[in-house]
Design brief:
With 150 residues, this protein is of the alpha+beta class. It is built from five helices and four strands. A four-stranded mixed beta sheet has the order 1-2-4-3, covered by helices on one side. The longest helix has 10 residues. The chain is elongated and about 70 Å long.
Length: 150
Amino acid sequence: MTAVLVAEGWPALRLQRVWPSPPQLYGSLGNDNAAVLFEYPIPGDPMGFPSNLRYMYFSTWHWTPMVNGYSGFLPSGYGNLARAMAEFPDGPSVAYLQGQGVTHVTVHCSADVGRPCRDVLPRLDADPRFRLITTTHFEGQPARLYVLAR
C-alpha cells in the first residue's frame, strides 16, 4: 500500500528544452533606455498568459521593459492587452500600443499563438508607423524587430 501511495503521489514533470540564447534580433535594441517592447504573438485568451514565458526568459539578455511578459501572476491589465491585440496590426491595436508607450515590436514566427506570420509581416512592412530594424531566423522561422512611431 505504501508503494502505491508513493507511486501515485510522485510528480510527473515534463521537461522542456530551454534556449541557450535568445534570437539575435535583441542585439539591435542597443542601450536605448527609453525603449518599451511589445512581443508578438500573444494569445488572445488571457488564460494563455504563460505562453509569454519565452519573452520573459529572453528579457534576461536585453532587460528592456515590455508590456507583455510573465512573472508568475496575471496582471489586471493583461486582458486589455490581449483583447486589443486580437487584430494586430489592424484596427485600433497599434494606437493601443502607442498609448502604452511601446517603441519597439518583435515578431516571432516560431511562436504557436496569434495570427500567422504570413498575414502579419506584410501588414507591418506596409504600415508607415513601423520601421524594420532587423530580421533574423529563430527555430527556422523569421524573427523581426520593428520601431513603432510615437
